[in-house]
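[step 3/7] inverse_fold.run input=structure_tokens len=660
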């Protein structure tokens, strides 16, 4: 290929990026200027995609883990005809634009993941690679490989300093994800200065210890060496690859090259003028790209389309040769398929004996694994306690990529990020599990799932001081309020088997928001007659025959407490209603008429009961009500002793009720 036109093509990425950041007077020019050659090399010579079909199943995935370099990605999407116009580039970081400060999945075509929190993109890339290998094992035939693509991530020093990258890449090496390739933009600069002030480890040796094979490109402008390294990674099926590419941050700006000041601030008009001179860029007009450069990119796009056409031909052959397998493949990729679960009576079969809701969830999972065959999930080394293993489905590993259960190891943060990548890849429904108190480790990636509108499922067991002897380090207090406060996030805390089935149905039915299913360690009685009542988030459990004098609202294990207290109060002639509220967020989505039916405004005497923080209950108890909860840390002791010690007793509820 003509080196002159390739140089111009690379410099066009630099120019557009610098001009966009300068116009916005905000952004990070350093990475785009230094990493443009590796980005061009990957996209032009190796990445399989079709800009008119950005969600093509078999495209290669690209994750810009160093999301602050977003202007480089937007420049690539513009040049490779994904529909971003020059005017879109000019609106970088402006309200409502298609070019926000960090890449946003679902907002801009061609963005495979929302990135920004450093290192998160690496975890999501690992999940994408896992999904590819699992689906390939499920559907590929010797003669027709329906699922056959690669995952690439571009990261920087900051990504590798974050702990999530070590967690995720350690697992990737263990799983030998050979279709995963990491490009490391090694410029040795962070916001505060040279990385040596806080980051002196041998990154390549760390990656080798994880199980990666490593390569180093000494000159980040040497596109032939970069391409050769990527080609080596593609040809080796034994391990994932980590390619260190040594670059200069702010390349092309004489006064900024290699300095921290190039990282996160506009270059300034004078520096941009000098950059154009340094790069031999003759055009002074901002955002100007020569016709021959556009023609070059257009030719590359035409080449890209051939891989899509070839796959379409392969897909047609596959459909004809293996119609049943192809129908299953399509079902895997149908996000609305969970609706039929509402009619599956075995999912809603009543049980009589008391049961911990974590055990209820485990039983529900055994039913769902046959009804939802594309479930793919696991636990952070707690499957026996979380009850999340799909029996008989095997564990995912290099030797058994068909396994549906995942050993995440003790890696809660990476687990949640990896699961996001599995969902982003498409074709699978993922769930993850740990103890509820450790949702603190899960939260950053759960927040990203909510931001991206991913229907991620979190199974969070051991949900209160009912953990008992493990003590306050393992007893969640504020975690429920934390998750409930997250936008576009639903929390279910069921009280029994029926409500647990409802929680799972709601989670699997979601197409645009995550769900946390919060479950008990201790056995709970069965109260709900039909779990489908719980699908509205709250419902009248008892006392609905007349207008209430008092409403007791509770979730999870405290529903029993509400019911027992209500019996005492009714025995004294009081009209008491018990409302089970497994999901406050889902209840808030119901019609005003339904909300009024369950919680009539005329009844202002209300008590919420939950063995966790009272934060957030004011919305429902009002000024004249009360909240029975726990606004301090727990203690170590048997569960029954703790519930009594902290006032979660029938006597306490009755006393508070009478005080109203």
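[step 3/7] decode complete -> sequence:
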């Amino acid at each position: 290929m003509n080196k002159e036109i390739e140089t111009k093509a690379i410099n066009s990425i630099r120019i557009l990026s610098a001009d966009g950041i300068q116009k916005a007077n905000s952004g990070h020019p350093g990475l785009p200027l230094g990493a443009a050659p590796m980005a061009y090399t990957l996209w032009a010579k190796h990445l399989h995609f079709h800009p008119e079909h950005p969600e093509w199943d078999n495209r290669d995935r690209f994750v810009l883990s160093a999301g602050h370099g977003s202007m480089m990605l937007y420049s690539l999407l513009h040049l490779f005809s994904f529909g971003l116009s020059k005017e879109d580039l000019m609106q970088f970081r402006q309200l409502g634009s298609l070019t926000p400060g960090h890449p946003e999945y679902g907002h801009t075509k061609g963005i495979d993941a929302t990135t920004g929190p450093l290192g998160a993109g690496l975890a999501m890339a690992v999940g994408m690679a896992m999904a590819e290998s699992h689906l390939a094992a499920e559907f590929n035939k010797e003669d027709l490989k329906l699922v056959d693509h690669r995952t690439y991530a571009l990261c920087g020093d900051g990504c590798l300093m974050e702990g999530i990258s070590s967690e995720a890449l350690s697992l990737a090496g263990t799983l030998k994800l050979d279709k995963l390739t990491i490009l490391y933009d090694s410029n040795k600069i962070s916001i505060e200065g040279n990385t040596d002030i806080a980051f002196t480890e041998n990154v390549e040796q760390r990656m080798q210890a994880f199980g990666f094979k490593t390569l180093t490109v000494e000159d980040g402008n040497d596109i032939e060496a970069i391409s050769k390294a990527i080609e080596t990674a593609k040809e080796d099926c034994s391990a994932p690859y980590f390619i260190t590419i040594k670059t200069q941050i702010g390349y092309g700006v004489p006064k900024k090259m290699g300095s921290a000041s190039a990282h996160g601030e506009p270059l300034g008009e004078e520096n941009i003028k000098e950059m154009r001179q340094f790069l031999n860029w003759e055009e002074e007009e901002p955002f100007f790209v020569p016709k021959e450069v556009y023609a070059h990119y257009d030719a590359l796009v035409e080449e890209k389309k051939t891989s899509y056409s070839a796959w379409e031909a392969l897909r047609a052959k596959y459909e004809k040769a293996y119609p049943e397998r192809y129908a299953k493949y399509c079902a895997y990729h149908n996000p609305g398929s969970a609706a039929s679960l509402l009619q599956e009576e075995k999912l809603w079969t009543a049980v009589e004996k008391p049961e911990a809701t974590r055990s209820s969830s485990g039983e529900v999972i055994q039913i769902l694994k046959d009804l939802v065959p594309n479930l793919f999930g696991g636990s952070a080394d707690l499957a026996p306690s979380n009850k999340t293993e799909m029996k008989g489905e095997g564990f995912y590993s290099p030797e058994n990529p068909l396994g549906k259960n995942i050993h995440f190891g003790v890696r809660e943060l990476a687990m949640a990020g990896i699961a996001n990548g599995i969902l982003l890849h498409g074709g699978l429904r993922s769930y993850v599990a740990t103890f509820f108190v450790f949702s603190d480790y899960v939260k950053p990636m759960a927040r990203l799932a909510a931001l991206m509108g991913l229907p991620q499922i979190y199974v969070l067991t051991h949900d209160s001081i009912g953990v008992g002897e493990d003590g306050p380090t393992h007893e969640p207090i504020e975690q429920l309020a934390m998750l409930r406060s997250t936008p576009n996030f639903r929390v279910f805390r069921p009280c029994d088997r029926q409500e647990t089935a409802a929680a799972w149905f709601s989670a699997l039915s979601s197409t645009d928001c995550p769900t946390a299913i919060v479950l008990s360690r201790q056995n709970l009685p069965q109260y709900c007659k039909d779990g489908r009542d719980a699908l509205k988030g709250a419902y009248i459990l008892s006392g609905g025959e007349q207008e209430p004098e008092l409403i007791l609202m509770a979730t999870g294990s405290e529903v029993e407490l509400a019911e027992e207290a209500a019996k005492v109060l009714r025995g004294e002639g009081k009209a008491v209603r018990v409302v089970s509220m497994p999901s406050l967020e889902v209840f808030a989505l119901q019609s005003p008429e339904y909300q009024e039916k369950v919680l009539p405004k005329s009844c202002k005497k209300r008590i919420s009961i939950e063995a966790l923080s009272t934060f957030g209950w004011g919305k429902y108890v009002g000024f004249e009500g009360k909240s029975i909860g726990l606004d301090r840390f727990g203690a170590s002791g048997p569960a029954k002793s703790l519930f009594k010690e902290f006032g979660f007793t029938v006597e306490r509820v009755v006393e508070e009720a009478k005080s109203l």
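[step 4/7] annotate
The CA atoms of residues 540 and 579 lie 5 Å apart.
The chain has a mean pLDDT of 97.
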